[in-house]
Amino acid sequence: MSSPLASLSKTRKVPLPSEPVNPGLRGLSVPASLMAFMTRKLWDLEQQVKAQTDEILSKDQKIAALEDLVQTLRPHPAEATLQRQEELETMCMQLQRQVREMERFLSDYGLQWVGEPMDQEDSESKTVSEHGERDWMTAKKFWKPGDSLAPPEVDFDRLLASLQDLSELVVEGDTQVTPVPGGARLRTLEPIPLKLYRNGIMMFDGPFQPFYDPSTQRCLRDILDGFFPSELQRLYPNGVPFKVSDLRNQVYLEDGLDPFPGEGRVVGRQRMHKALDRVEEHPGSRMTAEKFLNRLPKFVIRQGEVIDIRGPIRDTLQNCCPLPARIQEIVVETPTLAAERERSQESPNTPAPPLSMLRIKSENGEQAFLLMMQPDNTIGDVRALLAQARVMDASAFEIFSTFPPTLYQDDTLTLQAAGLVPKAALLLRARRAPKSSLKFSPGPCPGPGPSPCPGPSPSPQ
């Protein structure tokens, strides 16, 4: 019996089957030039891929660097809010300066901006957030000019000069009609005491008016512009002289305490300004062009010449403001005016003698005659000068006044005795025919009968 190993040695070894080979390709060979071209092409493509890969990596690095730069330069939300707030504050300050310039321009013409009434609910009932800050984004009024204005710098020398000029416009010893119970009386104007401190002014016996008060600023603006303060217009419509006490080196103690020696801020100023902002002027106090002209002097005498003040200003305002029909003012050449002109040229420093300035309005109210007379001149002198200026008969008109109602018929009456010194406003009217009177004379009785009437019978003359 043979072993298995012996049987293996007798088995025939058969080779494994290989892959089928195409008999047509066995004899095909690749040219060397094609192989070199393909190799070179492959190398070029590899170089191109490498260059593009390097370019992509470079661009990725640049993009990453730019993203880091953008992230660095991007402002923080809080910083953006602060920048926006600064821009708004700058804009508000510019608008505030423009408003002050426009108000100053209006005040130069005696005008004042009134505007529309403020909404009290929006200005006072603003809600407060949980952090105790005001919701300023929903408020209508972002800026309060009164809280941001510093106390004005007052030019004391210019203020004193303006007060002196205003006092010179008022004739010394001038009188004013003052209403009293049951009538009126003439009162001599007395100078108003005005004390000028470093921090404010005081008229009469008080109260003290600090410079930061808006009403005081309006008063100073009127004086510096050459007008009497508007707050005195009701009591003194024709002006009043001032008796100034220059105390600019003294500080008026409003609260009775000595001033704080160091530097600091005044507490409560903002609340004071807010309270003053609520005080609105009456709508009827708006100044018209006619009221503005009435505040000016009608004429002044400089070097013997009567200078019309209101006329040129009225012509300037005529184009922008509706004005009533202008009254033609005619200066009548009188001997007193000629003498005063000569005196002012020869000796201008000598005091002027007492004079009587008359303003007489014509019958139709379209003309006003200005006469400078002596107190001892008579009504007849005035009548003759008017007749000469009007080129008409002196007996064709009458001179009278409305307050008190007086008809000046006595031509021998002096102006001093008639109460027309130092100045007066009179009117003219056509002379009225005397009323017809009934006289009684004897005559026949109008009734039937042969006998005459025993009593007198009226007969018109």
From TrEMBL:
Residues 1-23, 436-461 are annotated as: Disordered. GO terms for biological process: proteasome-mediated ubiquitin-dependent protein catabolic process. GO terms for cellular component: cytoskeleton. It is found in: Cytoplasm, Cytoskeleton. It holds the Pfam family SEP. One of its GO terms (molecular function) is ubiquitin binding. Keywords: Coiled coil, Cytoplasm, Cytoskeleton. CDD domains: UBX_UBXN11. Residues 189-253 form the SEP domain. Residues 351-428 form the UBX domain. May be involved in the reorganization of actin cytoskeleton mediated by RND1, RND2 and RND3. Promotes RHOA activation mediated by GNA12 and GNA13. Residues 35-105 form a coiled coil. Interacts with GNA12, GNA13, RND1, RND2 and RND3. Residues 443-461 have a biased composition (Pro residues). InterPro entries: NSFL1C_SEP_dom_sf, SEP_domain, Ubiquitin-like_domsf, UBX_dom. This is UBX domain-containing protein 11.
